[in-house]
Amino acid sequence: MEATPRYRTTYDVPTKVVTLEILDTRPEDQGTYKLQAVNPSGKADTTAKLTVQPKEVKPLEVKAPPPSPQDLQEMQPPKVIVPIENQEVPENTPVLLKATIIGKPTPDFAWFKDNQPLQPSNKIRTRYNPDTKQVLLQIDNVQPEDVGEYLVVATNPAGQDQTAGALGLLPGPPGDEDKGKNNQVINHQPKIRNVH
Question: What percent of the chain has pLDDT over 90?
Fold first, then answer.
């Protein structure tokens, strides 16, 4: 095994225990590991099988503050007032997807892209403005891999509602066609319907 910063081997002399620690475990770490101890008297081998379980994938979320007693007495299920609009933007520009959603108590919001949980990243941020009742998703530096259907699900103890919209790329300036970047993406715009 190659030594890398993710693999750490220790030997505890008093207990005579050798430990292999794998940091940031990944699916490719799965397999059979063999330890061989050698000294002038001989050698000994042992093996262990490692199975890597996929971690639960949670969507990008906005959690509501704890509800007030009044909110719990006057509960209203989430309701989409203004759905997410389909948008097309130039590559390498930011985009803001937004919807107006009401509910009592304030709903929790979870984002999905192409029916998969949207993963948090440095270029994606979400927030809820309680004054305007808008839930926002900001994507910086839009790239072809960002194209798709975005869905936000609003949930509170009284119920759930959702809305979806498509994000696409506009054709680049003349000459970009030669790069082959935009041709495939433009023709692959998702078919979207607003759900609410």
Answer: 56
In order of 32, 37, 133, the CA distances from 50 in angstroms are 6, 20, 48
| Tens digits of residue pLDDT in 124-135 | 999 999 999 999
- Whether residue 190 contacts residue 152, with contact meaning beta carbons closer than 8 Å, is answered with no
Cβ contact 120:110 at 8 Å: no
Q: Count CB-CB contacts under 10 A for residue 151.
A: 21
H helices within 58-194, ranges in order?
Answer: 69-73, 182-186
Q: CATH number for the 61-186 domain, one of 2.60.40.10, 3.40.50.150, 3.20.20.60, 2.30.130.40? A: 2.60.40.10
For residue 182, the 8-state DSSP code is: H
* Dihedral angle of Cα 130, 146, 143, 179, to the nearest 10 degrees: -150
- C-alpha 112/C-alpha 189 separation (Å) is 17
Region 121-149 average pLDDT: 94
Return the bridge partners of 11, or none: 18
